[in-house]
Amino acid sequence: MNEILAQVLTMGTLAVILAKTAPILLAAIGGGFTQVGGILNIGLDGMMLTGAFLGVAVGAVTHPLVGVIAALGSAVLLALVYALAHLVFKADNVVVGIGINLLAAGFTVLLLTVLYGNAGATPGDVKSNLPPIDLGFVGQIPILGALLNSQTALVWLALIFVPVYWFVLYRTRYGVHLRAVGEDEPAAVAAGIPVTRVKFIAVLVSGGLCGLAGAQLAMASVGSFTAGMTSGRGFIAVAAIIFARGRPVPTLIACLVFGTADAVADRLALGGVNSSLALLTPYVITIVALTVAGVRMRIAVRTRTRKGLQQAAAWGVRR
């Protein structure tokens, strides 16, 4: 038992937590834009998976930075398909999201087979790793140095996007329009807000951030792609969004919880704990988080209903 704890409670675990949190956080912020605008984007996992494959495939024959750009662009294209299907052709957003996930899973396996002759993973000589950033003397600071040193640029970008997300939502015209559309779409239409355009932009932004999330997932350490390597992280991001209700700081906290669970699961596996049992940890926390979020939503709905009935009764008495 002491050996297992020693494996988990190390300075190296802090760095792993941040690296594991980054892809979930990027996807959650992207999904947060659509959630605030009234769209629950179930297709985050498929967009991440596409970004992960293109990041490695393109980065291996060019440069890791080009791979990241390819990951971003491919996920935006997939998000464009989502936006057209849901916003233009009025397909159900949940059905479209499931379709996007299935399309990405099948398409990446097809490309693996066609390009590399292996449906499971890219060959060993197809590698593309994002370079870690050395912070110099800052990396020698206790705890903080272990947490922040030798992380990729995408980890830093994920952290920077939290205040950027807050600023866009609460300090820009677009953020006001997005929140208005999500809170009361008919009122937003009556106020002259271009609802379709606002939602379209949110979906494309979610795609771009999911592409970066996929690049971080595939290129941060292993530098290769494995079929289905997101392992449901897109759905974990959706759970974080629902739990945080699209708010920036609670979204960061929720993603840190999931990232910690993922990192601890890896460390437990290294410490000799049954790997299947250890890998269940993030998903158990996801179920708990969704349950808590569901209870909170029901309480909020009941409270609003009760207040509405009370106001209606008071209005009837006054008349």
From TrEMBL:
It is a multi-pass membrane protein. The keyword Transmembrane applies. The chain crosses the membrane at residues 37-58, 65-89, 95-117, 153-170, 200-219, 276-297. Keywords: Cell membrane, Membrane, Transmembrane, Transmembrane helix. InterPro entries: ABC_transp_permease (IPR001851). The keyword Transmembrane applies. It is found in: Cell membrane. This is ABC transporter permease. It comes from Kribbella yunnanensis.
